[in-house]
Amino acid sequence: MAATSSYILDDYETTFRNVIDNELTTTAETRRAVDPSTGKPLFEVPVSTQQDVHRAVAAGQAAFPAWRDLSTDDRASYLLKFADAIDANRDGLGALLGKETGKPPPGVNMELFHLGNLIRMIVPLRIEEELVEETEERKVVRRYVPLGVGVGITAWNFPMGLGVVKLAAALLVGNVFIWKPSPYSPYTALKLGELATCIFPRGVLQVLSGGEDLGPMLTAHPGVAKISFTGSVATGKKVMAACAATLKRVTLELGGNDAAIVCADADLATVVPKIAFLSYVNSGQICLAIKRVYVHETIYDAFLAAFIEVVKTFKVGGSTDADAALGPVQNSMQYAKVQDLYNDVSKQGLNIAYKAELPTSTTATEGFFLPPTVVDNPPDASRIVTEEPFGPIVPLIKWSDEADVLRRANDSLLGLGGSVWSADEARAERMARQLEAGTVWVNSHFEITPNVAFGGFKESGVGVEQGTDGLKGWCNHQSVWVRKSAVAAEPFS
Ligand code: NAD
């Protein structure tokens, strides 16, 4: 089919196929993910086999040389057509995203509205050759060479966005790409793959759906040059161990337990609504959501009261509830994990300052709904402080001494993001720079754009995505030494 920016998919609900070498294929075995708003099974998707993996890798290897040899501008123009096609399919993709994630309309829009623009912001990025040295005797150039077949393995909290930033960077610099979405949210990724068949040459962008054995098949495959992984710390460690066997390149974007430190001079009317939103948005299922709020003791009570008032306004509802702000947790595994944390808070006798009543529209379903909950000043060693909940439960914690709160914020194996909130920007920046995290903000949190590198300290990750550093992660780094023949000089002279 001809590539056209107005290409519209006509079916978002009946057929979901793997995309291998621009062919839509299915498998003998199929499975269904679950609609988190209702607990009911959704549509059938393929369960890829080792054979499917071999075919996709072989198709990628065959496509790689021609794609690599295009100019970056030519590859960029394919990506821009893809961005236009995504925008043209927003309505259908949005409804499907709601079904597979349970996100109410604002959450769907948050992911979908920016999707095309994420690609458009990555496309102008360039990694130019660098002239390291030029003398009469020699020239030394540093250049960046694409790796080959790249694989993106993604989590379920942003089923399209997490894959799209990976594939745009990988393809732009000349790799081909296989996307493995989460088994909990395979639908929109497969539809994006279907859309891609109308735009990209064969084998350039492929999508495989499967069960929990598909990731290991890809990390083990000797024909895969790189794994870019977004998911949990535990799985990230398995991915890195598996990739060691073939020394694949690995980027790991893993969990976070981001602290927000609120200073005594912060203007509550301004910061409380922002911090509450950034803690509960997407029902807390964001790696960079605020997960611990450290509030200076002199404003703690007022902050807590104002915070609860904001959280009370967050209506919980399913994907078809136009008034809802927060949807369900995305899957039964995550529901059980977060429920376990709620139980632990009760078992430890911690003070629950607020726990919402769930609306009957949610309790009447088998959906994975949990009540937005605020925990009041739990001990530092409690699980709600030390673990990443990835759900709508947030601890507020008192602090009094600057050095001490920085130590407590940094007392974590995770180091994804962190923020400091104060009327004194210079002081806040000085404090923020002491946070052990890949991204730190002053009077903000979860601001990310594709032109700024993003990654974690400690167990939150390895390597970065986005920005030109992210593009370099999709390349081998090559140094080219040219000894000038006109000059009679010996090496090492
Ligand atoms: P997960 O680790 O369970 O799964 C992530 C992906 O890995 C899925 O596609 C899964 O099928 C696959 N997988 C599972 N076992 C595998 C294996 N052995 N080898 C290869 N692949 C395997 O994570 P999740 O529950 O989907 O996601 C939640 C986590 O993701 C949270 O910790 C969250 O903080 C993190 N996350 C991080 C970022 C970031 O950019 N740092 C973004 C979103 C989510």
From TrEMBL:
This enzyme's EC code(s): 1.2.1.3
Alphabetic keyword roster: Oxidoreductase
Boundaries of every Aldehyde dehydrogenase domain copy: 29-480
Active site, renumbered: E253
PROSITE patterns: ALDEHYDE_DEHYDR_CYS (PS00070), ALDEHYDE_DEHYDR_GLU (PS00687)
InterPro entries recorded: Ald_DH/histidinol_DH, Ald_DH_C, Ald_DH_CS_CYS, Ald_DH_CS_GLU, Ald_DH_N, Aldehyde_DH_dom, LUC3-like
Reaction catalysed by this enzyme: an aldehyde + NAD(+) + H2O = a carboxylate + NADH + 2 H(+)
Main enzyme class: oxidoreductase
Superkingdom as given in the UniProt entry: Eukaryota
PANTHER family cross-referenced by the UniProt entry: ALDEHYDE DEHYDROGENASE-RELATED (PTHR11699)
Name of protein: aldehyde dehydrogenase (NAD(+))
